[in-house]
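WARN no homologs supplied; continuing
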Amino acid sequence: MSSSNVSVQENWAPRFFTIWTGQAFSLFGSALVQFALIWWLTKTTGSATVLATASLFAMLPQIILGPFSGPLIDRWSRRLVMIFADGLIALATAALAYLFWKGQVLSWQVYAVLFIRSAGGAFHWPAMQASTTMMVPEKQLSRVAGMNQTLQGLVSIVAPPSGAVLIGVVPTQAVLMIDVITAFIAILPLLFFSIPQPVRTESKLKPGEKEGYWRDVREGFTYIFAWPGLLAVLLMATLINFLVNPLGALMPLLVTKYFQKGALALGSMDSIWGVGMIAGGVLLSISGGFHRKIVTMLVGIVGIGMGVTIIGIAPSDAFWLALVGFFIMGVAIPITNGPAMALLQSIVRPDMQGRVLSITGSLVVAMSPISLLVAGPLSDAYGIRVWYWVSGILCSLIALAGFFIPAIMNVENNHNENLPEPVPIAAVKNE
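OK structure emitted
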């Protein structure tokens, strides 16, 4: 059963794909900035602590702001949220480009810009995903999610070498200004195309309870916890991210210490993973996955587990087998992430999606520092491969268990059982 309470127009494609194309340019520009800033910090300081601090500043806003940005996204025009978020990111990046041009940039200023960019992302990402629900027919959501995964795969392959080439021929401020330009390319379609806003609803007020922002915050958590299937899916996604997130950080050590290979082998792993991700995204875009999105998602998680396990058990003289594992993992990630996003977009009430997606984003991002704190010491004590084969096996077991949990398998049909009765308070409109 769909949660959608609006009908998407038949000629939805021109509006959506014009906006989507603008966002694609912005995603590429953001990847260039990320590469340029990390490279500058590496070259300037050579400090692992500095790089770790930069990563922390780039993650914290999305972890902290998620539960609080969602209610605002559901209250405000999502189109304007995206415009202001992209604009804020562009202004912060332009200010940093000016400092580079003047030769006055300091590490703390880079931290500040990374923080601002992350804060903008905490509003922009859930606003765009929630807007997609209002523009794309439900039966096309999985295909659109597959396109998003394909795009991310392409960016992961193209952006780093492009950034490396650009940094070699133009100053850092010129690379940063590319992101400013792509941000305005993303904003431009939003100035001309409206995005339907969902019917705004609230659950009935309890005696003595008042309407307001903090009630919206609580309502977001209540919506999730009152729906066992949704809660189980989010917990599963959080656990999978906990297991998978450290793999990229451990990969250089796996290549150099275990396989006794160099930079070329490390680059080939990145490339084969990106190629796999593109292949998985294209496959999902064409096929749309299984009829039930939860089945496609669970099959994808099994694939991730298989790929990671193959990497973990590959003999030291069989680097090619590890490449096979990375390719399988790359293919499986879009098969997992695409249906997972399409599932949330199709089952969560449109006026609640800002809150649910923001909370989901916070949980996913929070897993990165937590899992690294666990995986690092464990790998130092028992060997790099341990995290690979343990996380691979656990991913597969978690997915297989999901097939036998009714709340998860029926999540697309059981969302009316325990949820508060919504009361419409505003009509659908284009903004």
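The radius of gyration is 22 Å.
OK
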